[in-house]
Amino acid sequence: MTRFITTFMLIIFYQYSFAQISGLMKDMVENDLQIRQKPGTDRLLQKYLSTLPAEEDTLYAILYSPMDCPRCEVAIPNFCRLLKKNDAPNHKFLLITVYKDSTIAAIYNRKNDYQADYYLYDTQNKYKKTQLYTILT
């Protein structure tokens, strides 16, 4: 009986582990929470991102406000690592931190080991002018 339970647990663990590392981009696109650019905001978005030294035409971005969702923040380092490894090895990451003080936000990112290729600190909630948030049901 012990052998059966051990085998069963190993099979479940293997399936769970494999499911966690594949198709992250597809899962994000099909997720109920979707963030999209508002129509007609191309120039605003270009201005918003103009401070970045990025040359790429495609960036993957994570936008968050420190301590708004501690449970979500815990996933940032692993999510970035897994996405880069599995779905986006040739793309750069942008971490957008929305907080009133960019110095404190930068310290917070370093303290929590949030690694990114580029950082953008939004101290005036400018992202709201270009992004549309929807929850699908």
List keywords for this structure.
single chain, 137 residues, alpha/beta, three-stranded parallel β-sheet, two-stranded antiparallel sheet, 6 helices, 43% helix, 20% strand, globular
Q: If you had to describe this structure to a student in words, what would you say it looks like?
A:
This protein is α/β, with parallel strands linked by helices and 137 residues long. The chain has six helices and five strands; from the N terminus they run H-H-E-H-E-H-H-E-H-E-E. It has helices spanning 2-21, 24-29, 42-49, 70-73, 76-86, 102-111; strands at 33-37, 59-64, 92-98, 118-122, 131-135. Helix 6 links the parallel strand 3 (92-98) and strand 4. The mean pLDDT is 76.
Q: What's the average pLDDT?
A: 76
Broad structural category: alpha/beta
- From the N-terminal CA to the C-terminal CA, the straight-line distance is 43 Å
State the helicity in percent bands: 40-55%
Largest sheet: 3 strands, parallel
The largest sheet has its strands arranged as: 2-3-4
* Multimer state: single chain
Gross geometry? globular
How many runs of DSSP E, i.e. beta strands?
A: 5
